[in-house]
TrEMBL record:
Protein name (Swiss-Prot/TrEMBL): CASP-like protein
Keywords: Membrane, Transmembrane, Transmembrane helix
Segments of skewed composition (Low complexity): 1-19
Region (Disordered): 1-22
Domain of life: Eukaryota
Organism: Rehmannia glutinosa (Chinese foxglove)
Annotated transmembrane regions: 43-62, 74-96, 128-152, 164-189
Length: 192
């Protein structure tokens, strides 16, 4: 072996990576990601049902003048947005559970390595993308319903005060976190 060959040879990699052969990938990270999606969707779904129970027009207003009290149309919007949000969370959770089931079924076929399923990367990529989009849209409509819920409880946004502070704070922080979620999902989609 010449000196040139010895200097150009690269050392073997010691890190564990996802292997892709023939359009199929082996990984156990997907299960953790899918569990996280299902858990977060379940938490938000529980919040939706609490919102259903608290959205009562007679309990709203919090001592506001009549011009600042939310109309019945805003109360209806709360319910509509909560139902749409629930639909997206359910959609996302069902896709995630289906992918998880497929991974676990394939895992059970290999008794030597039960933690790395040989899955079609196309199905995994688009399944995770669909689940992420469902969660994203669910969070967006949940935010819309909370904006209207704040208006029902504290007064309409146009009157300012505590309802305006609460709405602006929520939109800024939730909007920022959704932007981070979108960028992370796009990154994962492009490099998976």
């Amino acid at each position: 072996m010449s000196q040139h060959d010895a200097t150009t040879a690269s050392p073997p990699s010691t890190t564990t990576t996802t292997t892709i052969t023939g359009g199929r990938s082996k990984t156990s990270v997907h299960i953790t990601a899918l569990d996280g999606i299902v858990n977060v969707n379940s938490l938000f779904t529980m919040a939706l049902f609490i919102g259903f129970s608290l959205t009562v027009p007679a309990a709203g207003g919090a001592g506001n003048k009549p011009s600042c009290t939310a109309s019945i149309e805003i109360v209806r919007q709360v319910i509509v947005f909560e139902v749409i949000s629930f639909s997206f969370f359910l959609f996302s959770s069902l896709i995630a559970q289906s992918l998880k089931l497929a991974i676990n079924l394939v895992n059970s076929l290999d008794p030597n390595d039960p933690h790395k399923a040989d899955m079609d990367s196309f199905c995994m990529k688009y399944g995770l993308l669909g689940s992420a989009i469902g969660s994203l849209l669910g969070c967006t409509f949940l935010m819309f319903s909370i904006v209207d819920f704040i208006q029902v409880k504290l007064g309409v946004f146009s009157c300012g005060g505590k309802s305006a502070y609460a709405i602006v704070t929520m939109v800024v922080f939730v909007g920022t976190s959704l932007l981070v979620y979108i960028l992370t999902a796009v990154y994962a989609f492009c490099f998976m």
